[in-house]
Amino acid sequence: MLDIHEISKTFNPGTINEKRALDKLSLHLDPGDFVTVIGGNGAGKSTMLNAIAGVWPVDEGRIVLAGTDVTALPEHRRAGLIGRVFQDPMMGTAPNMQLEENLALAKRRGQKRGFRWGVTKEEREEYRELLKSLGLGLEERLTAKVGLLSGGQRQAVTLLMASLRQPKLLLLDEHTAALDPATAAKVLDLSDRIVQENRLTTLMITHNMGDAITHGNRLIMMNNGQIILDVRGEEKKHLTRTELIQKFNELAGTPLETDAVLLS
């Protein structure tokens, strides 16, 4: 479903602020893989997701998604293939538009727009049923402005929007980091359900080692723009946080000192 072949990205090349964010990184995802991504600040996690999404071009290498080489495609040309949920609950939705209007925008992602845009009666019923499945009572608030929802409700809606068109790849970019622990747990459970029910191939960045171990069928750890650890199956199920830190120290040759990772 996803093939990344030796991609590299350097910011501010030739200056004192030069930073090699990705260093000949390669990754292969089979259809249905749910991969959690962990690593310290500056490891290249978000840069990798942004490269996949087309936020900025890579300096070298290739990105192939569902058999299509998207390396040279701009972000809007990849929109029909990729769904994404960001860390900030304020992103991913139009706060001044109604809930049903946001869902309609998501359903039309990647399609040509015409003069007829309004939400049909059939679509409204579809959205009501989808929202009902979230268990948050939002099915009765179709005409409410999304900006009035709580952070957890907005992330739940954004998850629904990101998966509405059955994307080839779902990107979850620390999508629970800004939520309180109880709400984050609910959003993670919802993420698991949406991924499993729709059989979505997924990459989820997290700073929480426990979440990285618990969720998904595969875990990768990044450091200095490279993947230094890739575990799956039974090995992943039996991992502990202590073992994960030890593996990082051994493979990276330096202690893992990022507070956000160690304290989570």
Protein described:
With 264 residues, the protein is of the alpha/beta class. The protein folds into two domains: 2-81 and 167-262, Rossmann fold (3-Layer(aba) Sandwich); 96-166, no CATH class. It contains ten helices and ten strands. It has helices spanning 45-53, 75-78, 99-107, 121-132, 151-163, 181-198, 209-214, 233-237, 241-252, 259-262; strands at residues 2-11, 19-29, 34-38, 60-65, 68-69, 82-85, 169-173, 202-205, 218-223, 226-232. A six-stranded mixed beta sheet has the order 6-7-8-3-9-10, sandwiched between helices. The protein has a four-stranded antiparallel beta sheet with strand order 2-1-4-5, with helices on one face. A hairpin with a 2-residue loop joins strand 4 and strand 5. Helix 3 (99-107) runs parallel beside helix 5 and helix 5 packs parallel to helix 6 (181-198).
Radius of gyration: 19 Å
| Total of DSSP H or I helical runs spanning 4+ residues | 10
How much helicity do the residues have? 25-40%
What is the number of independent domains?
A: 2
Largest sheet: 6 strands, mixed
Q: Choose one word for the global shape.
A: globular
Q: How large a portion of the residues is in β-strands, by DSSP E?
A: 15-25%
| The CATH class of the largest domain | Alpha Beta
CATH homologous group name of the largest domain: P-loop containing nucleotide triphosphate hydrolases
Intertermini distance: 31 Å
SSE pattern, N- to C-terminal: EEEHEEHEHHHEHEHEEHHH
Mean pLDDT: 86
Structural class by SSE content:
alpha/beta
